[in-house]
Amino acid sequence: MPIFEYVCESCHHRFEALVYGREKAACPKCESRKLVPQLSVFAVSTKGASSGASVSSGPCGTCGDPRGAGACSLGDSD
Fold it and tell me: pTM of whole model > 0.85?
């Protein structure tokens, strides 16, 4: 079951939705079906990588900054 990210054209609410089969997502805030799909950023695990090459750890888990963890200079969320 894929998770999709959307922005509602009616109320501009940003959300994720599980979409099954041919179902159409609806905004959880205003129930509009006028949605703009967004590009999803996903994490890739580098565990077990034995090449020794420098591998980017992916975007910041706090804000999604593509430069990586800590690049956004937001405080630790713990």
Answer: no
